[in-house]
Amino acid sequence: MNTPTMVGSLIFAAVLVVIIGLLIRLMMRGWRHRGQLQDALIGALPSVPDTVGAPSVGATRGVYLGCTLAPKWNDRVVVSDLGYRTKAVLTRYPEGIMVQRSGAQPIWIPEDSITAVRTESGIAGRVIPTLPTRPHDGVLAIRWRLPSGTEMDTGFRADDRAEYTRWLKDER
């Protein structure tokens, strides 16, 4: 049953598979190139301290949405595993903020490098609409300065958005 229609369909399917494969390869190459460019900006992240004091804001469960280069809320950091969304627990200590991520390395944000903790409507390509009557329904964004001098925003969406008030209390 080698009719011209069947042969044409098979050729079309093969060309389509090749085009899709090339597009995926180009996207992966772009992601790696972006990571190489950002690697120089990010540098080494602060190491997690061996001991910390009692939590000043208790554990908040939610989703780590990723990091972005400040002030561009949509310029996702792709270095290491900073660009991947995952379940996380956010805890504030007198020495800094710990972001314990599921399946990834924890992120330690030293207290002296934190410049702002605020709510935003979106970060890293994730937009959460807010209502005027409930302004804290969006994303908890932590702006901090890396040892390299680059400012970065870390986005977190809590399971219970009412917990944002505990995080914003110290910042007002």
TrEMBL record:
- Domain PH: where? 42-170
Alphabetical UniProt keywords: Membrane, Transmembrane, Transmembrane helix
- What InterPro entries has UniProt attached to this entry? PH_bac
Q: Transmembrane residues, as ranges?
A: 6-28
Domain of life of the native organism? Bacteria
The protein depicted here goes by the name Transporter
Organism, by scientific name, is: [Mycobacterium] zoologicum
